[in-house]
Amino acid sequence: MIDHCCDLVEAAKAAGQPVVGIMCEFTPREIILAAGAVPVCLCGGSAATIPAAEQYLPANLCPLIKSTFGYHVTGKNPFLALADLVVAETTCDGKKKMFELLGLRKPMYVLELPQRADSEAAFEYWTDEVRKLKEHLEQRFQTRITDEKLRAACRTMNRERQLRRQLADLMVSDAPPLTGRQLIEFKSIISGQAADLQQYENALELFAVQTPPPTAKTKIRVLLTGVPLVHGAERVLELIEAAGAVVVAMENCTGLKPILEDVDLDGPDLVSAIARKYYHLPCSVLTPNTRRFETLRSVATKFRPHCVIELVWQACLTYDIESFHVRKVAEEELHLPYLKITTDYSPSDSARISARVEALFETIRARNQL
């Protein structure tokens, strides 16, 4: 996937097509696609780039932020190097301040996200921010984003989300035909590309006729929630499944969260419709984030997990604090065992995490006679 994306970005640059780096699901891909640009996710998932970042950033900071900035310091991210613009979304404080340093050497546009989750005034402010992004892209890339271009981009992204939902729905089966680790590979770091959509369709055809392994029905079903598992940072997911489980649902930004809602194409104002879809993302930076708990309830009902495991990156304060509510939903409403894992990108605590996961699974096996 990464090799394919590198080829695509290099070909786009050679053809004079701009590349826009993004670091959060809140950035509307539809606006970037309608501007004729390529939207590329720049979030870092490597522990190797963190030491370089800690020359500038505090050690007790989220590893995703440090890894991302470390790629910038070391020059090892070709997508960041080739980006004509980086869209900086004001989500958590750590990202906001890192963006200030990144912006010293990289063209950047700040997309300001309001903090209120269910406020019409906040939504109107957010819609205005999305309009300003549209205008900025038009000016920077000397183009005009027409309603026709926006509508085409919305159709493309709606199709991508629909295909990814269909792939995710394969895990509803009592014997899922693939693992959670395999499923997460069906997420390109570039959005809205025809070749990727074709591959999603090919995968759906393949797994529709593929016989699941005989052990698929006996595995513990896990609902994984919390922070995103960006490319290269899938270690905890791998540890969970190595202990005899299958992660049937991932309620996070690299899983179900950004694909549950499409852009409504029937309204009179496409920019407002795009803004509303992205404003509904149940991120922990928003308050109150009740939509996330509604999502957890519906996902648990659909995918029937035996437990809920929450992953929190060290120093990710919003998810860390919100885990209080997630535990209550899991244990008191869903009546499911809950485990919180706080870690970073280093594999030094892998044995400890495996031991905790295995202990949880032994309890579940005994209770459910698996």
Distance between the termini: 36 Å
Largest sheet strand order: 2-1-3-4
What is the C-level CATH assignment of the domain at 2-148? Alpha Beta
- The SSE order reads HEHEHHHEHEHHHHEHEHHEHEH
Beta-strand residue percentage = 5-15%
- Largest β-sheet summary: 4 strands, parallel
Overall pLDDT confidence: 96
> How many strand elements?
8
User: How many helices does DSSP assign?
Assistant: 15
Assembly state: single chain
Helix content: 40-55%
Description:
This protein is of the alpha/beta class. The protein has a domain at 2-148: 3-Layer(aba) Sandwich (Rossmann fold). Helix content is 49%, strand content 12%. It is built from 15 helices and eight strands. Strands 2-1-3-4 form a four-stranded parallel β-sheet, with helices on both faces. The protein has a four-stranded parallel β-sheet with strand order 6-5-7-8, with helices on both faces. β1, α2 and β2 (38-41) form a beta-alpha-beta unit. α8 packs parallel to α10 and α11 (235-242) crosses α15 (350-368). The radius of gyration is 20 Å and the shape is globular. It starts with a helix and ends with a helix. The mean pLDDT is 96.
